[in-house]
Amino acid sequence: MNLANKLTVLRLGLVPIFMIFTVIDNVWTRIFALVIFIAAALTDLYDGYFARKYGVITDFGKFFDPLADKFLISAAFISFVGLRELNVPAWMVVFIIGREFLITGLRTLAASKGVIIAADRAGKFKTSSQITAIILILIILCVNSILTHFYRIHPLELLEGSNWQIGFGNFLVWASYWIVFIATLLTLISGLSYLYKNRAIFLGDLGVKL
Questions:
Q1: Nearest C-alpha neighbor of 129 from the set 83, 96, 81, 91
Q2: Are 135 and 143 in contact (CB under 8 A)?
Q3: How far apart are CA 136 and CA 143, in angstroms?
Q4: pLDDT in tens, 55-94
Q5: Domains of the chain listed by start with CATH number
Q6: What is the largest CA-CA distance in the chain?
Q7: What is the reported pTM?
Q8: Hey, what's the torsion of the CAs at 134, 87, 141, 84, to 10 degrees?
Q9: Is the pLDDT of residue 50 over 70?
Q10: Interatomic CA distance for residues 127 and 121, integer angstroms
Q11: What's the burial of 102, exposed, middle or buried (CB within 10 Å: 0-12/13-18/19+)?
């Protein structure tokens, strides 16, 4: 197994560890979760780099590399939904994951017709926005844990303090909602862009003439 594929397997292996550390309300586990996610995201950057540099692009990598990406990002958003200290609605996560199923299905349909759908700028921007959103929320979780375990202050208690405390408390309570909302919006835009650009692939089967 070449280095690129080893990094892909490593990313898959880090996913369950990342989820465990994320859901445990402890300062150090939350910090470890942040470090693990960043490390996993970096393996995504370097496995493709090494595969292209050394000319070792394999069918294994073509299949498992995007799968590992989706697995990691889906695991993060699903974990966030289950945390009461965050405001991450399930419907947003359903749209994010649903988009991945939709585009994967589109790629499969295209492949059956001998067409390869390459990643476009919108798709890459979508992935970057999702990774950024997850890192920001993990930082918020770290801050929440530090306040709770070192200062014995729950984020909701800040809403009853001074003006700056109320502002900071509102940020901790509502930032996750708007961060994921923006990521969801960009994800949907990316999905619609893929569908529109490749509409001939599935509209032809429906008997629609373009």
A1: 96
A2: no
A3: 11
A4: 667 766 667 777 888 899 999 999 999 998 899 999 999 9
A5: 3-203 (1.20.120.1760)
A6: 65
A7: 0.87
A8: -130
A9: no
A10: 10
A11: middle
C-alpha 48/C-alpha 5 separation (Å) is 9
105, two tokens: 């299905």
Contact 138, 37 (CB under 8 A): yes
**Distances in whole angstroms, Cα of residue 202 to Cα of each of 103, 121, 181:** 12, 22, 29
What is the residue-averaged pLDDT of the chain? 83
Q: How many residues does the chain have?
A: 210
